[in-house]
Amino acid sequence: MAKEKGNAGFQPYVPASQKRPEFTVMAMIVGAFLAIIFGAANAYLGLIVGMTVSASIPAAVISMAILRVIMKRTSILENNIVQTITSTGESLAAGVIFTLPALFIWQLQPSLTTIAIIALAGGILGVVLMIPLRRALIVKEHDTLPYPEGTACAEVLVAGEEGGKGAKLIFGGLGIGAGFKLLTDAVKAFPSAIEWEIYKFQNAAIGMNTLPALLGVGFIIGPRIAGIMFAGAVLGWLGIIPLISYFGQFADTVIYPAAIPISEMNFHDIWGNYLRYIGAGAVAFGGIMGLVKTLPTIISSFTGAVKGFKDAGGSQQLRTEQDIPMKAIVLLTVGFLAILTFFPHIEVGIVGALLLLVFGFFFVTVSSRIVGIVGSSSNPVSGMTIAALIFITIVLSLVGQTGEAGMVSAIIIGSVVCIAAAIAGDTSQDLKTGYIVGATPKWQQIAQLYGVLITSIVIGFILILLDNAYGFGSSDLPAPQAVLMSMVVEGIMNGDLPWNLIFIGMATAAVVELFGIGSLPFAVGLYLPIHLTSPIMVGGLIKWIVERRAKSKEERKEKVERGILLSSGLIAGEALMGVMIALSITAGITLPAETLFGPMVSIVMFGLVAWYLYFTATKKKI
């Protein structure tokens, strides 16, 4: 059996000597469709809770249901191309929504063309700069770098006969999520958010957004991360907000950045004027700490992975050794740097292009290897972006690019770096999957570029629709990461951030770190309204109960996988309906203003979805 050089003992599922249908027209059509769906879902989810979920396994399951079950196409390599294109869409969306909404928050309203070019540049750089590292990271270190999501996806593809059954869970969840969102936000049958003030506890409140997507997020991330997030929300809404209210209840002094005295504020006002900045400081500290804690890995990743460039050329005889030619990589890199340097409304300039190349190359290299160790879910992309933005903003201000123009340039450069790092991590996971199943790297890399192109065209429409309907930075669409990025850039450029509140948040996160707990989930919980973290906590508790009731490791894995597939559907369905509702609002369609039923109906409906998630995960057969 053919074996790729550098790992002579490994045998892929499909030998290099065999040729099967791979990059087909059908794979392109299905992949593009799923990339748009999961890209929209991740964009919507990330703008609400500041985190995204991997689409590789759900995409693989749906792909097998469509290609293998419905169309009777049995090539595992064709299924792998579909999940490769799809996962590219969700990763690019994650990089975009972490940064580009900052331009909308500043009321600059970038055009569809501008958004598409920025997304396309970041995505293509993320793919092509990772390609020369494939042999070093995926082949030579196959036994030392597990790439957990990539390996898990390969297992799902190999066990393809289960794909049709698993797809039923995803499509069922998609219908539930979409129907629930339709009833709450379009028909207004019952409210999607409920809250209660706590008796005898001034400005203390507990609330919940009764949406299935948040329940699904909680199940996917699990009880520990969900609990840490909820702890941050409890401190903020039952600790800091009442404390600020207590000390300010008799004062008429206006304290910056608020425009009214604290004595006139309710808990939402205090969150918007004070707690949000404390939370932003905590998120910044948590992101940077995540970067600092991985510095040894980053250093070894960078020095080790860079050696892959030396091995990027050479003879490519076997199908499983073929990469996109180095000439194409160089042309794409230089071409998009030139476009970003000179294209109207972008024009990052020569200094900006150099900063982009340096940080892009460094963080693509780091991200490509670090996800092989900690997985894509723990890839500190936001921490990398914050660190890059701070340095980029300082350099731009030193060379005279200040004010609005300098802020825009900093965000654009940071966006490209963020997208490139997110895409590079995803490319690595996909190439790991391909290496295990015996895919042709060249076709996977072309599929990645195709996925980047498709999603880049669509993502601008999604951003503009969501901003027009809900508004980035609002309670409906908090966009926590993008708000933080905008605050960092604006604060450095203008020097008008409420730094005391930022430093209080950083100190709070530092205390959590000293307890030996990762501070970033806590910080995100402190930043977000408790209404968003409480349903996530419920989802985490359901997963905890499901795991506790399992009698063996195999049973636990099976039940959790069922729950994750249903949860992925809940997220995708709600997100798609959210985009459709946003489109309706933008088109001028008037939706009902008053709900038909009260909060108790909302609680009951949420409880039914929670029960169904638990029931589905624990039943013996799908």
Fold and architecture overview:
The chain has helices spanning 25-49, 56-70, 76-97, 101-105, 112-128, 134-139, 148-158, 163-186, 212-248, 267-293, 295-306, 326-342, 349-374, 381-398, 403-437, 441-469, 480-494, 499-514, 519-527, 530-549, 553-586, 599-618, and strands at residues 193-197, 205-209. The protein is mainly α and 622 residues long. Helix 21 (553-586) runs antiparallel to helix 22. The protein contains 22 helices and two strands. The model is unreliable at 1-6 (pLDDT under 50). It has a two-stranded antiparallel sheet.
- Terminal Cα span: 37 Å
Unreliable runs: 1-6
Estimated helix fraction: over 70%
The strand line-up of the biggest sheet is: 1-2
One letter per element, helices H and strands E, the order comes to HHHHHHHHEEHHHHHHHHHHHHHH
